[in-house]
Task: inverse folding
């Protein structure tokens, strides 16, 4: 696993897009661990009663997908400090999700190398399912 | 169309729970759950996966990925029980990660409904319930905070 350094990053730098294809099996594994009782995440029938074509992903799971893209990028010595997202469209198993971070600002303050990003997940229809901001800390190049 | 203030004045919900913290259980951070979760979401960072690598790190042990909180099962807490609209959705989520959860930690969580408010826009009125959950380790230090906002609305509007 490689390490990205603060010196490598400037406004306009892009993380990803990293493509995620959440499957029904992953959704079931997630809701089992999480203990969700809400029908729309576990039952096609319950989801259809609410007007969806089938089960949808909990917002928590989409957050976890995006967080993973950011922690993977930040590497062993980087840190994700903040993630803040609006849920704008629902996500379903089988969707193709492009996970993206776009650096908008970098600053060093209180000994921390802060990288501020706009983050989003875009689906196969070009719609932003999740949109928000993130703050990551990166190490200096040795 | 009634404005947001009118909606809030007449809204049927449990006002007593707003701003009150409730304990929602403790969680032991285990090697099995950290590695299992890290693999399930596709992490490759050895801090989450490789015991020997992690033992030699600053933390001295495996740490949990930030999104690990999504795998912690909490007890339920009293809800604001907002009676409005026909359906509810996740509107947004805001996480602050202060320090990592480590294998061997005992994490206790407390949660509160921090706010209930209405907003009227071009697609009608929506009522938001904001819940803030704080996770604290056995040393009494907050390790993270999650603020989730649920929205209720009338889909027939």
Result:
């Amino acid at each position: 696993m490689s390490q990205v350094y603060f010196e490598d990053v400037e406004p306009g730098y892009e993380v990803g897009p990293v493509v995620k294809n959440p499957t029904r099996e992953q959704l079931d594994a997630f809701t089992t661990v999480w203990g969700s009782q809400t029908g729309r995440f576990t039952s096609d029938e319950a989801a259809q009663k609410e007007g969806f074509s089938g089960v949808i992903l909990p917002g928590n799971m989409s957050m976890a997908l995006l967080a993973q893209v950011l922690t993977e990028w930040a590497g062993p010595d980087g840190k994700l400090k903040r993630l803040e997202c609006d849920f704008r469209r629902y996500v379903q198993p089988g969707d193709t999700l492009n996970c993206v971070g776009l650096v908008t600002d970098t600053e060093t303050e209180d000994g921390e190398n802060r990288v501020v990003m706009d983050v989003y997940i875009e689906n196969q229809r070009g719609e932003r399912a999740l949109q928000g901001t993130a703050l990551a800390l990166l190490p200096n190049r040795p | 169309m009634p404005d947001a203030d009118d909606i809030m004045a007449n809204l049927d919900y449990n006002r007593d729970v707003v701003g009150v913290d409730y304990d929602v259980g403790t969680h032991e951070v285990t090697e099995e759950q950290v590695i299992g979760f890290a693999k399930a979401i596709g992490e490759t960072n050895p801090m989450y996966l490789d015991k020997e690598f992690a033992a030699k790190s600053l933390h001295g042990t495996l740490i949990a990925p930030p999104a690990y909180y999504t795998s912690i099962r909490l007890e339920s807490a009293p809800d604001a029980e907002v009676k409005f609209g026909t359906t509810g959705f996740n509107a947004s989520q805001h996480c602050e990660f202060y320090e990592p959860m480590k294998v061997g930690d005992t994490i206790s969580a407390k949660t509160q409904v921090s706010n209930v408010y209405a907003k009227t826009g071009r697609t009608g009125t929506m009522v938001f319930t904001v819940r803030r959950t704080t996770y604290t380790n056995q040393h009494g230090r907050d390790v993270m905070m999650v603020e989730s906002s649920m929205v209720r609305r009338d889909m027939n509007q």
